[in-house]
């Protein structure tokens, strides 16, 4: 079985009765804790118009996290590229890389990270997204290249910066694109599990080696909630279930604390929908988590597993990431 790296995806969750300032402090504390545990990277995801997620100004937040840590890689999981000018993103990440050399990742996706009305407010043109997104990745590569010094339009900072680009996806379209461009691929298994098996197969079978990435590289993002006992983890997971239930109901309120009986909150149809979306969720004590991870890795042979934890109490969230690290260390000795 292939050994894999362990990383963090943080959505900067806003919790009931907490401020956004509290959210950012919690994110920094988590990043520092993950660094102590030797997690590989800490990514933040761009979302908009959601009272439960505060990572809309993703580049700014990456700078805050990188400045408060020392060694862990920090990046975007991802920047929703069609929301932005390629030049602006090149300049932003060039600035970050110049401030924190060798620690910045640029994960990019094509989804809006929000609803249709907000996507329109962001200036997206849905008619050209599928052709615009690959072109924007190529533009980023050009802006980061030393050769672009002769161009009339240059990214300063950005030019000559060695910033790895990762293609994010939740469908097979992104798998084809990442394979064609010879770039690492990160799949959003934490909310879109249906296409993951097929996407990984497409990516591996069609990968075209590139100079920076001669071999395919797969990151799978999954939900992870660990605690001292299975029962405790299952109760903590009710915050995760409520968060996805709110998505189904189009209710974007801050995250809710755990409840004793989640069946009092949802109906059977809502439960089925939520559980399908959360198919790749690891919930339990250390031994349960280890067994779940073993089964997952035997099936998928990923290079990296990125854990996102919808846990209400900060101390429980930190403890969950510690248990995951101990479980993985126990797998490989």
Molecular structure report:
There is one protein chain. The protein has helices at 20-36, 58-67, 86-99, 116-121, 129-144, 172-181, 196-206, 230-248, 268-277, 286-300, 314-332, and strands at residues 5-10, 41-44, 73-80, 104-109, 165-169, 185-187, 218-226, 281-284, 304-308. Strands 1-2-3-4-5-6-7-9 form an eight-stranded parallel β-barrel, surrounded by eight helices. It is globular. Helix 6 (172-181) links the parallel strand 5 (165-169) and strand 6. The longest helix is centred in the last third of the chain and has 19 residues, at 230-248. With 333 residues, the chain is an alpha/beta fold. The protein is built from eleven helices and nine strands. Helix 3 runs parallel beside helix 5 (129-144).
Major sheet:
8 strands, parallel, barrel
Distance between the termini: 13 Å
Structural class: alpha/beta
The chain-level mean pLDDT equals: 96
What sort of overall outline do the alpha carbons produce when their principal axes are compared? globular
């Amino acid at each position: 079985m292939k050994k894999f790296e362990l990383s963090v995806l943080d959505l900067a969750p806003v919790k009931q009765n907490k401020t956004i300032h509290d959210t950012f402090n919690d994110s920094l504390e988590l990043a520092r804790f993950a660094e102590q545990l030797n997690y590989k990277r800490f990514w933040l995801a761009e979302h908009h118009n959601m009272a439960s997620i505060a990572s809309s100004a993703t580049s700014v937040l990456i700078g805050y996290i990188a400045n408060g840590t020392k060694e862990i890689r920090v990046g975007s999981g991802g920047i929703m590229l069609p929301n932005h000018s390629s030049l602006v993103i090149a300049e932003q990440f060039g600035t970050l890389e110049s401030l924190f050399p060798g620690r910045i990742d640029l994960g990019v996706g094509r989804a809006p990270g929000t609803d249709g009305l907000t996507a329109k407010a962001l200036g997206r043109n849905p008619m050209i997204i599928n052709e615009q997104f690959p072109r924007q990745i190529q533009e980023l590569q050009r802006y980061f290249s030393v050769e672009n010094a002769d161009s009339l339009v240059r990214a300063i900072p950005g030019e000559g910066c060695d910033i790895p680009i990762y293609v994010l996806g939740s469908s097979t379209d992104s798998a084809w694109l990442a394979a064609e461009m010879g770039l690492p691929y990160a799949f959003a298994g934490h909310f879109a599990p249906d296409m993951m098996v097929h996407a990984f197969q497409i990516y591996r079978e069609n990968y075209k080696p590139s100079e920076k990435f001669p071999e395919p590289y797969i990151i799978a993002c999954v939900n992870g909630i660990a605690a001292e006992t299975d029962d405790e983890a299952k109760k903590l997971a009710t915050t995760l279930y409520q968060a996805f239930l709110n998505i189904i109901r189009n209710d974007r309120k801050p995250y809710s604390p755990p409840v004793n009986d989640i069946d009092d909150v949802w109906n059977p149809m809502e439960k089925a929908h939520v559980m399908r979306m959360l198919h790749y969720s690891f919930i339990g004590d250390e031994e349960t988590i280890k067994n779940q991870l073993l089964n997952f890795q035997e099936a998928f042979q990923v290079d990296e597993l990125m854990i996102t934890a919808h846990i209400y109490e900060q101390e429980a969230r930190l403890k969950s990431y510690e248990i995951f690290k101990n479980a993985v260390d126990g797998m490989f000795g």
